[in-house]
Amino acid sequence: MLHLRQINLNSLRIVESAARLGNFTRAGEEQLITASAVSQRIKNLEDQLRFRIFHRRSNAVLLTAAGEAFVSHVREALDKILEAGLEVSYPEREKVLKISVLPTFATRWLLKRLPSFQDMHPDIHLHISTTYNAIDFTREDADLAIRYGQGSFGSLYEQLLLIEDLIPVCSPTLLHQKLSREKIREIRPEDLSQFRLLHSETCTLNWKSWLKFAGAPKVLNTAPSTTFDSCMLSFEAACQGLGFAVANRAYVADDIIAGKLVAPFDVQQPNKNGWHIVYPNHNIVPEKIQAFEDWITQQARHCAEEIGQLDQVGGELNGIRRPQLPDSEQKILPLRINSV
């Protein structure tokens, strides 16, 4: 009598592949073994079972009548094994929340706030990945994403978290090295030609957009510049005194409060873009997604309040008065930026 322990269970997967693909070579490619290994495994199984599973042809294989009945049972058994595994792992999978975020959003805004989420929801295991590309939820394994733009993310559910404007920032040390205190108190956008502009390949329009809005587009062609492959590096370079970076205030608010950066221009540029939480529509939103959305929405609200406090003290922040442009120069232009 044949016992289960005598059967190589991996051979059952090989038989199923060969039956489905009708070819030992393609079955071998799928199972990562050679065609001859497929043939030998199946022959050994046929010898054990004492019936032929396949008719061999030169370029293909066909199931025998007994083989068709056997493969039908094999597929049913393999499906049950998979189903059982999913049932066992389901509670664990439900505890994992997979999030796709923009790299700079993750490092400059999200990570420092995550401890409070984990304190509130210690049972949820976060799996965070970063990408500059919009995620395709039908092909990629993610529960939700944080994306930047004006909204309208197709058929996805979306919730606006923050809308922010661009500001040029630099280290206070650099500002005092380049300009006298009197000049600092009267600094204007045209004075940026005396500083190095720090650009990012992932935010190519930001400086052009802000300078045009501020009425100083020629600075882009006259000021020295350095380009980085990410916004994160340009912000860090600004902290180290290399030059001026242009940034969303949500990304640099903590550095301004800590005195690492100053924002000497009070030029408010309207912005229709913002950060959104997006995910596929659900009839009932999974608890782990709802928990994260509630938490991050609250964090975004606190961030907006902090930025509002920056505005209140910005006139004297770090000993620098930020001069406003005359109303006649506060031109309202469409804002086209890309922020990551």
CATH architecture type of the largest domain: 3-Layer(aba) Sandwich
CATH class of the largest domain: Alpha Beta
How would you write the strand order of the largest sheet? 4-3-5-11-6
Q: Cα-atom Rg, whole angstroms?
A: 30 Å
Number of strands: 11
Unreliable sequence segments: 314-339
Largest sheet: 5 strands, mixed
The rounded distance between the terminal residues' Cα atoms is 66 Å
Order of helices and strands: HHHEEHEHHEEEEHHEHHEHEHEH
Number of domains: 2
Q: Helicity range of the residues?
A: 40-55%
Helix tally equals 13
Could you say which overall geometry the principal axes of the C-alpha atoms support? elongated
Summarize model confidence as the mean pLDDT: 84
Under CATH, the topology of the largest domain is which?
D-Maltodextrin-Binding Protein, domain 2
Strand-residue fraction? Answer: 15-25%
Structural class: alpha/beta
Tell me about this structure.
The chain has 340 residues and is an alpha/beta fold. It has two domains: 4-93, Winged helix-like DNA-binding domain superfamily/Winged helix DNA-binding domain (Arc Repressor Mutant, subunit A); 95-340, D-Maltodextrin-Binding Protein, domain 2, CATH 3.40.190.290. It contains 13 helices and eleven strands. The strands form three sheets. The protein has a five-stranded mixed sheet with strand order 4-3-5-11-6. The protein has a four-stranded mixed sheet with strand order 7-10-8-9, with helices on both faces. Helix 1 crosses helix 2 (24-31), helix 2 packs across helix 3 and helix 12 crosses helix 13. The longest helix is centred in the N-terminal third of the chain and has 30 residues, at 65-94. The termini are far apart. 30% of the residues are buried. Residues 314-339 have low confidence and may be disordered.
